[in-house]
Amino acid sequence: MALLHSNKGKIIVVVGEEMKLTTEFCNFLVGCGLPKVCSLSGGISTLQNYRHEEILVKLS
């Protein structure tokens, strides 16, 4: 938890295959005071369905 709080202003992406658990964990993190939390719907396998050239990632 200390690692998360040291990155409090950054976007935190939660990745999980089971949407209910992923959502619950995102809500837990927001409840702990981490304001920028999102989830990758469908987990990491979602990214495997796309070609690498089609994925654009902006790091903040």
UniProtKB/TrEMBL annotation:
Residues 7-56 form the Rhodanese domain. It comes from the Eukaryota. Keywords: Kinase, Transferase. InterPro entries: Rhodanese-like_dom, Rhodanese-like_dom_sf. The keyword Phosphoprotein does not apply. One of its GO terms (molecular function) is kinase activity. This is Tbc domain-containing protein kinase-like protein.
